[in-house]
Structure formats: C-alpha cells, structure tokens
TrEMBL record:
SUPFAM superfamilies: Outer arm dynein light chain 1. Pfam families: LRR_9. It comes from the Eukaryota. Keywords: Cytoplasm, Leucine-rich repeat, Repeat. This is Leucine-rich repeat-containing protein 51. GO terms for cellular component: cytoplasm. It is found in: Cytoplasm.
Length: 173
C-alpha cells in the first residue's frame, strides 16, 4: 500500500522511491542528490522543510530541483526562496490561490523551469503573462518553452495592466 505524506517531517522516516540510478549516500548516510521529489502527497504546508532537507541531504544548498506537484499547498512558502541554486520548481496540481504568490520566486537567480498549472491561479486573467513578467529568466513555464512572442506579449500586457510605481519625492525641510 502506498502511504501519502501529510507532513514534511514524515519524510525523515520514509525510504526514497527507487529510480533509474541508485541514490548515492555520503559517509554520514545523507543523500548526495540535487533533487527532491515530494510529488503526489497531501502536503498542505512546508513547516520544518529546512530542517528535514538538512537531515536528508548532505548538501542542501546545492538543491536544484524540487517537485512539490500534486499536493495541497495553498501558497508558495518563502522557504523555497532560500535555495539559490534552484533551477526547476514544480508546483502544478496544488491549491495556490493568489497570483501574487509568484512574486516570492523573483529572488531565485537560477530558476529556469516552473510549473503552476492545475492551481486556481491558472484561471486568473493574464496568468501566463503575469508569471513571465515577474520571472523574466524563466525559459520553460508549465512544460512549454517560453518564446520571444511570449515575452513580447507579456511586456505589452505588463504595460497595460501593471501600474508603474511612482517615484517618492522627499520633502526638503
């Protein structure tokens, strides 16, 4: 019987799924991997994510791929923004409600591939354009390559829908 995890801390006692290549371990017993696949569970938050990742991985700072697809996440936890080597993030099939959640990911310098389809935010007008404006370094979004035409459309959409911040003028005393 497959057991679905509802808490990140449940991962510590869970055996990793067998993949095509055997998982390598350090002398301390921690995994030597740059990817973490936590898809198809019932996670609704990432409480203790950092501590658990540190327990499981020898070099958590090298984490480049996180798959959290098909869970019950309602927001993008800021803890994900602490993994600066993250280049692939799968969040499709969750319950993310607000398009503004995407803003949190703008601090990830290496993020190139992102999935968000199958979340309620996908139904919001300008979904694709908003994400591409917010994350201009993305090259693959929802498993589709980002084209020059996509970027042009996103820029036009941005000019029409996002009001520029007005410069604040300091009052001289």
């Amino acid at each position: 019987m497959v057991e679905f995890q509802s808490s990140v801390t449940d991962l510590v006692s869970e055996e990793p799924r067998v993949g095509l290549r055997p998982l390598k371990h350090s002398k301390s017993g921690k995994s030597l991997t740059q990817s973490l696949w936590l898809n198809n569970n019932v996670l609704n938050d990432l409480k203790d994510f950092n501590q658990v990742v540190s327990q499981l991985l020898e070099h958590p700072e090298n984490l480049a791929w996180i798959d959290l697809s098909f869970n019950d996440l309602t927001s993008i936890d800021p803890i994900l923004t602490t993994f600066f080597n993250l280049s692939v993030l799968y969040l499709h099939g969750n319950s993310i409600q607000s398009l503004g959640e995407v803003n949190k990911l703008a601090v990830l310098p290496r993020l190139r591939s992102l999935t968000l389809h199958g979340n309620p935010i996908e139904e919001e007008k300008g979904y694709r354009q908003y994400v591409l404006c917010t994350l201009p370094r993305i090259t693959t979004f929802d498993f589709s390559g980002v084209t020059k035409a996509d970027r042009t459309t996103a820029e036009v959409w941005k000019r029409m829908n996002i009001k520029p911040k007005k410069p604040r003028i300091k009052n001289a005393l």
